Structure formats: C-alpha cells, structure tokens
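User: Can you fold this complex?
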Amino acid sequence: MPETAVMTSEEIFNRLRDVLEEALGVDDDEITLEASLTGDLEAESIDFLDIVFRLEKSFSTPDKPFKIGQGELFPENLMENPEWVDDNKFTDAGMDMLKERMPHVDFSNFQTNREVEKVAELITVKSIVEFVERKLAAS
Amino acid sequence: MRWMWIDEITDFQPNQRMVAIKNIKADEEYLRDHFPDEPIYPASLMIEGMAQTAGILVGSINRFKEKVVLAKVLKAIFDCEVFPGQTIRFDAQLERMDDQGASTTGIVQRQISTDSEWETIGRIDLMFSHLDQNRAGLEFPEENFVFADNFKEILKQAGLENLADT
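Assistant: Here's the predicted assembly.
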C-alpha cells in the first residue's frame, strides 16, 4: 500500500471507490469520476458523515492522521447568512463563499442555476478525489 | 417513552467501551408472534440493544447533554439464532466521534455456560447523530427526550448515575 503523501489521483480514486462502495452500498461500476453523490449514488444526509469518517480512516497513517474538519468537505449551514442566499438562490457573495470554502468543487455549470437545494449535487466523486489530493499535498 | 432492550450495564470504560446484557425471558410478549410455537429473539431487537448500549457510551462523553440518535446501521451480521432462556451481551466500542456524531463497532455474544463463557454470535457497527447538530439545521425540543428516566435507571443500577448532570 503506498504512502498517502505520494499517492496518485488513480490510487486515491481506487481507495475512495472502496469507501463509497461500503458507505453507500453501490456497485463499483456505478462509481465513476463524474458520478454525483446525491444525484447518481443516492447519498443521504447521514451518509456524508459516514463518508467523512471512512475517508479519515482510509487515508490516515500511524504517523500522519488524516482529519477532516466539520463542513470542510460538504457544505453546511448555507442559509445562515442572508448575504449569501436570496430567495433560495446564492447571491454573488454566496457564490464567492462557496468557491472559497469548496475549491474542490466545479461551479462552472452552477452560475446560472444557483439553487441552494442543488448545490449538493455538484459534489462528484472527482470533487472528493481532488479534496483528498489537496489535503494530502498540504499535510 | 422508549422501551429498554438491555437489562444491565456490566462494564464501562469511559470514552471507549460499554458492555450490557439482556436476559431473554420466555414470557416476553413479542415472542408469541415471533414466531408462533417457535420463539426466536428478533435480530432487530439485537440491533436496538446494541444501539442503546453504544448510544449510552456516546451520550456519556458529553454527560448526556446531546440528543444521540441512531442514524445508520453500518453493519449487522448474525451467525445464529437466539432463543428464550438465553443471555446475550452487547460489547460496544467507540470508533470515532465529533460534534456531529459518532461511529461505534460492536460484537454480540451469547452465554454458553453458567460459568461466564461467551461466544460471539454477531457484529453490529453503528453511526449516531447528534440531533441538534444536524446538517439540515432542524430544531428539536430542548428537553433531552433520548435519555429519559429509564436510561437514568439503568445508569443508577450500574452505579454510573454520576455520568449524567441531571
């Protein structure tokens, strides 16, 4: 098993696939880089916490714990600031906040939609691979 | 109110492990239907017994201030059936916890003789959510309806009443 610090995207993806298979009970052929967690893999709210716990376990090494902060991977409390949301859609300030808090997510197709309820659908398998890559590189 | 599916806490290591037993009595009402003329202890009640044992362990960490609810059954595997007259125990270990919730691993064991020998007959891993920290931001009553009086009675019997503030 490779050291986590030098893992390639493919190695991260392979390990993430095991995590998602276990957490969501889906078949490995359903887990593509483009698959959306809530849209395609039918992840529910509690599954996100399960995935976070499993990622921490899967990518931690005895001398380097892999710790994910609350709200770091998946967005939370997005309605808490009225400057971010207006009529259930993200404002310009809200979009800036999302991009800053979630650099691992591709928002390019979300500029026109902006619906709060749809933001979870943007989290794909690829987003999580990128999230893990960034965290491992920064550690 | 919630029904209790554990009789007694028999071991407790703070923040790590809790063990509880359940004696399955022949006159327990649901056994008449599960199944007629062939009573078998329901696997769903073993999951609930583990959830109560592990839930008390998780709740004890914050002195039962959080509303700890079972959110997901990560794994439930049973090797054999359990019958009236037998005693089982739930051995729950804390795996991971943060503000939002916790995960636990656990084994179910059955007493095979009166001199305290046990065999493992199941494995149940669970995930708990702290209800007031839910991702949807929903609000719940202030009163802790999860850890009600019957939980406190179980703690008291085990001499653990000092784990709770109220």
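Chain A is about 40% helix and 5% strand. Chain A has two domains: 1-72+123-139, 75-120.
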